Inverse folding.
C-alpha cells in the first residue's frame, strides 16, 4: 500500500517495471498499482555469461530487458541512479548498465524515471539510511510476500518500483491540491 | 589506403561505421573498404538538445544512431574506448555513450569492435602520441579529402573507422600467413 486512493476512485491500473542496473546481473521487478494498492506481478534477475566480453554482456542484458518489457508491457520504467563512488571503472559500468534500461524502454516509447538510493530508501522504508536487509523486509511487507525477495538485485528492483509508485502518488496529490 | 589487396583479389566491399561516443555530441563516420582501398561515404555529428535531461539525451542520440545505421546499413561498427581518466562523472557519461552505440548496433545484429585511443592513433598516424590536429590531417590524407573533416567528433569517428580497417586487414593477413 502506498498512500490513499484517489478521490475520484477512477484511477486505472499502472504497471511499473523497476530495474536495478548492472552489467553482470540486472534485477527486475514488476508491480501493478491501482488506487494506491500495490500488487506483485513478477521479479527476477537477468545474468550475463561471465565468459563474455563487455560488448556481448551489454547485448545479452539488453535483449533480456527487452524480453521482460515484451512479456509484461509496463507503462513506466523506474531505475535506480546508483551512487557512483570514486571508482571510474565502476562508474563506467554503471553508465553502461543504466543505458541498457533507458534504451530498451526507448524502443517501446516507455517513459523512464530515475531515483537516487536515498530516495528509494526514504520511500520504501521511511528512512534514507536503511540497510539492505531492512529494505528487503519492507518490500516483503509492502507487497504481502511470504518471504523476502531474493536475490538482492531483484529486491532492489522491486524497491525502486515501489519508490516510483509513492513519488508519482505524491506528485498527483500535489497537483490535485493545487487545483 | 590501408595495406595491400588480398592475393585472391575477390574481397568484397565492407562498410564501416565509426562512432565517437558522447552524451551531448556523437560523431559518426562511414567508410567503404575494398581490397585495402578506403572510400569516404559520409560523416557528421548527432547533437542532443542541451535543455534535455540525461534520459532524453540518451534516447535522442540512440534514435539518431539507429537512423544513421538504417541509412548506411554498415557491416561493422567501430567505437573508441576512451581513456576514462579520474573523473567518475565523465566515466559515467562515457559508459552511457558507449552503450548507445553498442545497443543501436545490437538491434540490427551488427558486430561491434572497440579500440583504445592509442590504437587509433597508432593505426591512423603511425604514432600513438599524435595530437588531434595530426590525426585530422592523416584522416584527410587517407581519405583523399580536400579539407580536414570537422568537427573533431566526426574526425575521431572517421579515425576509429580507419583503425578498424587496418586492424581487420592485419588480422586477415595473419590468418593467411598461418595457412
Amino acid at each position: 500500500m502506498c498512500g490513499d486512493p484517489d478521490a475520484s476512485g477512477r484511477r486505472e491500473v499502472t504497471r511499473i517495471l523497476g530495474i536495478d542496473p548492472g552489467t553482470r546481473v540486472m534485477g527486475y521487478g514488476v508491480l501493478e498499482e491501482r488506487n494506491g494498492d500495490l500488487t506483485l506481478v513478477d521479479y527476477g534477475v537477468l545474468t550475463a555469461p561471465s565468459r563474455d566480453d563487455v560488448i556481448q554482456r551489454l547485448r545479452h542484458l539488453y535483449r533480456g530487458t527487452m524480453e521482460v518489457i515484451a512479456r509484461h508491457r509496463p507503462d513506466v520504467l523506474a531505475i535506480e541512479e546508483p551512487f557512483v563512488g570514486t571508482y571510474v571503472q565502476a562508474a563506467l559500468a554503471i553508465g553502461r548498465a543504466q543505458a541498457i534500461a533507458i534504451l530498451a524502454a526507448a524502443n517501446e516509447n516507455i517513459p523512464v524515471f530515475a531515483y537516487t538510493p536515498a530516495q528509494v530508501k526514504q520511500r520504501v522504508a521511511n528512512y534514507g539510511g536503511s540497510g539492505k536487509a531492512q529494505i528487503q523486509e519492507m518490500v516483503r511487507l509492502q507487497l504481502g510476500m511470504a518471504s523476502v525477495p531474493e536475490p538482492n538485485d531483484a529486491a532492489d528492483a522491486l524497491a525502486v518500483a515501489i519508490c516510483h509508485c509513492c513519488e508519482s502518488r505524491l506528485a498527483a496529490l500535489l497537483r490535485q491540491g493545487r487545483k
Remarks:
- Chain A has one domain: 14-178.
